[in-house]
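From the pipeline queue, job 12 of 40. The input is one protein chain; the requested action is below.

Action: predict structure.
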Amino acid sequence: MLKRDALRQRRQMRNRSKLRRLAAGRSRLSVFRSNKQIYAQVIDDAHGHTLAAASTLDKDLRETLKNGSTTEGAKAVGKLLAERALAAGVKQVVFDRGQYLYHGRIKALADAARESGLDF
């Protein structure tokens, strides 16, 4: 078990270190996926502040979604996060997928955020 956690953390840190080099002052769109929900937030790493956040547990989405662990839920979270980020004045971000592969729910969230106006 310890070895699996260590490998997961190495993947995550390898991805984040590449992002920091490429970010050039842009905010980071970080994604966390659990078995039942998906969470995303736009983070300003220079100041350590969260600028916008959304998840399938938000009151707006909880009422409309049947289940939080589907690609439809991820699309809704991506759209809501992009709206909140644009309202906060953030247009360009760097996508931080963490330890997850870029497919399925992660890809659906990223595509919905792009369609809603975020640039990455």
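Job complete. The helical segments are 2-23, 59-64, 71-87, 105-115.
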